[in-house]
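Researcher: We're reviewing a set of sequences before deciding which ones to prioritize for further study. For each one, I'd like a predicted 3D structure that I can look through quickly. This is Glycosyltransferase 61 catalytic domain-containing protein. If possible, include the structure in token form so it fits the rest of the review sheet.
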Amino acid sequence: MRRSMKQIAMILSLVAMVNFLWILLTIRNHLQAIDTTILLYHNAHDRQDNHNVRLPGPENLNVQRERNERWSSDALERVLLDSSDRLADSVNDMNTSVISWNVVQDPQQISAASKSYFKDIERFPQVKTLTVRYGFTRLSEILPIRTYYNYSSNNCSKLMYPGSTKLVLEAQSHAECTSDFARTLEPVGLRPLIGSLQNGLPPETNVFPDVILSFVHVIQGGYIDNEGIVTSRDVTIRSQGCGMDTVGGKYNPEWTLIDKIFVISERWGEAFFHSLVENLPRLLPWLKYLQENPTIKIHIKSMYHNIIQKVFNISYSRVTAGNIRANLIILPAGIPCGKPAVYPTQLLWYQIHKQLPAIPMEERMNLVLIKRLPRKNRYFAFHKDIHRLLVIEAEKHNMTVVVFDDQHMPSFEDTMLMFNQAFMVVSPHGAGLTNMLFSQPGTILIEGLCRAALNLCFGAMSQVLGFRYYGHFRDDKDCFEYTAEELAVSIRFYLRRRRAL
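Model: Here's the predicted structure for Glycosyltransferase 61 catalytic domain-containing protein, in token form for your review sheet.
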């Protein structure tokens, strides 16, 4: 009996030891799998034989908590320096001493909105194209915005293109619209950026495994019309932007001749939103080159010299517009009308915020209310009631309400500081929201959307710049009709959770 007990004890000990070894082996295999996954995730873009690597498409992007992750600008600055050097080499290699001004009567029209754009443009030897590429899985190394969010609305199902079944922002990106405020509190990784990475590129350009962040054409001789359409001998190039239905001006040898010019103009380029969101960002991937070559003119309609001079450190005397001839034309990638492109837009934000303090969410004490003139129905008819509501709610949290009035606008410097210190911005749809370029990621934007002309361009900008966006929409009201009571729910929700953001 005693011997049997000993045998049973030995058997149980062996079973326990086998189980323990099995557990250790399982843990080791899991760790190896994790290591392999991480290695593939970071190096897929460098592998030539990567057809077996599962790239992180929209369906398997994990939530990334990067709020407290330290980011260094070193990698981004290296990309910018490399872009500048490559552009300088291309410009120096372009022989402008043998320019032919024999423009054909009907040059071929090439549109950057065409799927075959890159292939089409290769047929013209006077045009050289450079691209800026980076591995998709490594974008967090160079993108200065660290957190991104899904967007919210009281009426997600109505935020659609006319005659479409696709939500506007979901068609432009892979962000999700939710009526559950709580789902906008935490970041969701790179998912909201996927569609926006295509903005400015020919349709269906693949972003896996490498993303084309930007591109630029160096063109040997040509002319530019007032809307930035470039013609060189036998080709007319239309960059993406507003007014892509134009075909370019007719050549006139009497137009002013400039040696070298950088073109970022478009239709409506003199307007505040279009200038800052669609025109000026095109310059940013190549800013170092332009700063180092002060004789190059810049073709743009913009009158916003404060940003060009104070933020870009470029003399406004270099700006020109109208119909121009040039020995050498530098034409960067365009930006679609109302659809911010990720890389150039974040570069603009990065350049602006070099001059602004980084303020943590819990230390931002401003509630900014934008007041607009009563025009185009883009204003709050009940502005006083909404202001009163914000003051009452702000006092509960020791915060301050600041009104941005487009009739009595503050200075450029004061505007930058006002929006940089904003915890929340409340506004009817309108160009004043462009000032959120001065805001910090995580800032809450509550926008009163307009029924007559639904436009989610500021929702798209929020996706790219990491804001928490709430679009208030009713198909039986226009944006000027929203009351304080209707906006109160979203305002109170975010204020009550201020400490948790």
